[in-house]
Design goal:
This is ABC-type xenobiotic transporter. Pfam families: ABC_tran (PF00005). It is found in: Cell membrane. By secondary structure, the protein is an alpha/beta fold. The chain folds into two domains: 215 residues, 3-Layer(aba) Sandwich (Rossmann fold), CATH 3.40.50.300; 66 residues, Alpha-L RNA-binding motif (Alpha-Beta Plaits, 2-Layer Sandwich), CATH 3.30.70.1560. It has eleven helices and 13 strands. It is elongated, with a radius of gyration of 24 Å. The two termini are 46 Å apart. Bound molecules: adenosine-5'-triphosphate (ATP). The site of adenosine-5'-triphosphate has 11 residues, from β2 and α1.
Length: 308
């Protein structure tokens, strides 16, 4: 039997005065997976996540998290989820270790707080008041507080924004371990490599709607073309090459001796280009297939212009 989605959002609408921040959004998160929610600034990611967490009320649509209504059944839901907020909710004079221990005590089976602080590189700042922690340390403490209670589901809003490369990797490792323990994670991020590294499922939001969803591989494979590049002697007869290639392919010499072939790039096209080169006495010094990255897909879907 297929498990119910851990998060199920249908036709969600949220308005702030005249502005519609979320505009009929659908989102489904399967149990035990990491879902990355991507989108340009102002797309509605934080609003959606905060509605799932029960911090905001939807204007329309249905939201179920672990089968519960996040607002009406908040008391039942809160102990089962972990939330990493971008900021706020913290007494600035409290010491880091105290805050983490306090949060751990609210849960029946918390993680070991010493282990968690070491893992996240916070071992040396347990006695430091929150307001004196660096931005990156505050960020890691927020992550620790979100996961210390062994939640079934954790929401991470831009978990690695502003972190140095070591801290980013420590965060990624922790998220992978959580998943290995069966925890479901929903994260928002602006880092495409983070989504590629961590996510089983990616949802791209734009203008308050989900404009694409799938695994990183599915999103990169779908739709547009890939590129095959090779180098050889300059001035090859590309019209002749095109007759050997399947319909819809295109070829161009992008610089003297550098060639780009686009279209449905698969084993057949690679073999065709290689055999055409052999027939014409061309030794390709380099031949490479370039797949679209998640960033390419993201920019194709959401545009390259900066938004107001
Ligand atoms: N409390 C609020 N009052 C009024 N407008 C708001 C409020 N919160 C968000 N908005 C607006 O709603 C829209 C969506 O904001 P949201 O923070 O959900 O986007 P986001 O995708 O998380 O953006 P970012 O990547 O910049 O964090 C934006 O236009 C934002 O200005």
């Amino acid at each position: 039997m297929r498990e119910e989605p851990v998060v199920q959002v249908r036709k969600l609408v949220k308005r702030y005065g005249p502005r519609t921040a979320v505009d009929g959004l659908d989102l489904s998160v399967a149990a035990g997976t990491v879902t990355a929610v991507l989108g340009p600034n102002g797309a509605g990611k934080t609003t959606t996540v905060e509605i799932c967490e029960g911090y905001r009320r939807p204007d329309a649509g249905t939201v179920r998290v672990l089968g519960l209504d996040p607002v009406a059944q908040a008391a039942a839901l809160r102990p089962r989820i972990g939330v990493m907020l971008q900021s706020g909710g913290v007494y600035p004079g409290a010491r880091a270790a105290e805050m983490l221990r306090h949060t751990a005590k609210l849960h029946a089976h918390p993680l070991d707080t010493d282990m968690l602080t070491e893992r996240l590189g916070l071992g040396g700042c347990g006695r430091t008041p929150y307001r004196r922690l660096s931005g990156g340390q505050q960020q890691r403490l927020a992550l620790a507080m979100a996961v210390v209670g062994r939640p079934e589901l954790v929401f991470l809003d831009e978990p690695t924004a502003g972190l140095d490369p070591q801290a980013r990797r420590a965060t990624w490792d922790l998220v992978r371990e959580l998943r290995a323990d069966g925890v479901t994670a929903v994260l928002t991020t602006h880092f495409m490599d983070e989504a590629e590294q961590l996510a089983d499922h990616v949802v791209i939001i734009d203008g308050g709607r989900a404009v694409a969803a799938g695994s990183p591989e599915e999103l990169c494979r779908g739709g547009a073309e890939d590129t095959l590049r090779f180098t050889g002697r300059p001035g090859l007869d590309l019209a002749a090459l095109l007759t050997a290639l399947p319909a819809g392919a295109a070829a161009a010499e992008t610089a003297p001796g550098s060639y780009r072939v686009t279209g449905k790039v698969g084993p057949q096209m690679l073999a065709t280009v290689a055999s055409w080169c052999a027939q014409h006495g061309v030794m390709p010094d380099r031949i490479a297939v370039e797949r679209r990255t998640l960033e390419d897909v993201f920019l194709e879907l959401t545009g390259k212009e900066l938004r107001a």
